[in-house]
């Protein structure tokens, strides 16, 4: 939900278990631009959250702190940015497992990602899998009733375009990621009327 000072809240979810994850670095870059555009940005590093596998029927309280944090952040977001590594031609399992926890939002007044803008990022070792991964995430976001931002960023040959900490070092891809961060804030501000933001912020 919109932060206390009425700013839009953008939640970024991503990264892998690999030290120096490029998908996490790409997400940092996009979220930084979202923050520069006036949004409050929260980064959820999937390595840090250390999520167990989603288990149908297990209550939320039965999971650890990481799952609770993830679900609350997804619920409170005005917009999201998802960033995955491409594994075996599609999105990595760690990303899909995190998204499966959106099931806990299914009974909300505003279910799943209903009406929320979602930006998509992938990084890959080769040329093709990143686009496939983003394409697969489009289906997931649509199933969750979200609105996919019409610019998706796929960073191919990420080993070449990132440093040891996962930061994207290529100017062209860096600018695309920043453009996505700005676009998500712009679209979310149009989908979340000012009156709603002020009302929610003062609630
Ligand atoms: C298990 C595994 C499967 C992968 N499969 C593909 C693939 O099908 N296509 C591809 O281009 N890169 C593939 N890669 C490379 C990763 O997409 C690439 O290293 C990516 O940047 C990793 O993201 P990270 O830096 O966030 O860990 C694979 C890597 C791993 C570990």
From TrEMBL:
Coiled coil: none annotated. Gene3D superfamilies: 3.40.50.360. GO terms for cellular component: cytosol. GO terms for molecular function: FMN binding; oxidoreductase activity. It comes from the Bacteria. Residues 9-159 form the NADPH-dependent FMN reductase-like domain. Pfam families: FMN_red. This is NADPH-dependent FMN reductase-like domain-containing protein. It comes from Rubrobacter marinus.
